Amino acid sequence: METEKTEKEDAAPQPYVAIRDDRKSSLSLCLQLSFSSGDALLVHAKPSSVWWWAELRGVTGYVPASYLCQSGDAEEDDISTEDPWQDEEYFGSYGTLRLHLEMLSDKSRTDTYRRAVVSNSISLTNKVVMDLGCGTGVISLFCAQLARPSLVYAVEASSMAEYTRQLVKQNGCEEVVTVLQGRGEEVELPEKVDLLVSEWMGNCLVFEFMVESVLSARDRWLREGGVMWPSSAVLVLVPCQAHDYFAEKMAFWECPYGLDFTPLQPLAQQEFFTKPKFSHVIEPSDCLADPCNVICLNMYTLQIKDLEEITGQFNFPVETSGTFHGFTAWFAVYFESLEVGGATVELNTGPHSEPTHWKQTLFMLDKPVSLNVGDCVTGTIVLRRNPVWRRHMSVTLDWNIISDADKCQSGTKTFPMWR
Ligand SMILES: NC(=[NH2+])NCCC[C@H]1O[C@@H](n2cnc3c(N)ncnc32)[C@H](O)[C@@H]1O
Q1: Which of 12, 46, 127, 229 is surrounded by the fewest CB atoms within 10 Å?
Q2: Which residues form the SH3 domain (predicted)?
Q3: Which residues does the chain have with pLDDT short of 50?
């Protein structure tokens, strides 16, 4: 790499902040320093205007100068003032119909909320309801049309709220449903509520971290003995095959058009297997073991601070011999009955249930491993919330494959979602 002296190399290291995640480039990977947006680095030398020599948590390496801004200067102020919740972009996206059409078109999702209302319509009589993040107000309209609550506060932060008011009027529900435009954390209600209902789930259950807004609204507005819908949630995991995806992204380079393109496979692994694959559709036959609930959230006791790091354990006896390409995750949420002893309503986004717009999420290992019946895959999953970008997280999977004595293999991989 061409270098020219641009600064005295023995000057004191200078503090910088990473303004985006590192990129792997033509520079040899072993020379490059890995970092994430928001990391504080120390720049020791600037041998060129493009690549600087920096240190992060005791590890040194080259970093692209354009990815850093000096701590304390105007640019860093931009970073520090850049909204860690990215609310402008987030609520901007919900101000258009695209996402609402996707959610309303998801019959499994929307019908389950309707079923929860219908199953509890008697108990909902004269109750006060808060629908947090009501979007077009469909859940609030279900409540007003299929039951007899005294009031529904439909809270929506995006500009969709003004249309939601029209929909409430259009459907003759303005006596019962009041639309409040604002963030659930900030709106003022005139009273506590008996039921807090919200559709807050994201990929891997918590991505987007709208769940924090639900917990904040619970702590402010749910009366003693009030009900949370969903009442509980589980993240489900399974070791799986993903032959099609592996063939499409990795095996493809073996001999396209009779040529050997295998030198591109490390690049393919970096580009396609470093981040999770959203909207994956796993076939039940791809499951190599019985799926298991690795994380369980109780929406009455869960605290916002608990969201920083959520850990689950797993122990999968292999039920089907095959190729362990990775893990697939999905979630299920439960709506407890308002009647003591009444039936719980479940929304399950897994491969054995009605398809949903969330589909499933696939985490690909770097190298597939053969598994046989009798083997066991044990380990942990850790969801770590991004300390800077508050709607993002990473998923770390640690696994051990226990097979006949001499073949124990273990591995660990961390997947950013997305920063
Ligand atoms: N399942 C999800 N991942 N998203 C589905 C619900 C998202 C809806 O809730 C709204 N919304 C999200 N967070 C908030 C909040 N804190 N306050 C008010 N509305 C919100 C958002 O504008 C959108 O209309």
Answers
A1: 12
A2: 11-73
A3: 1-9, 74-79
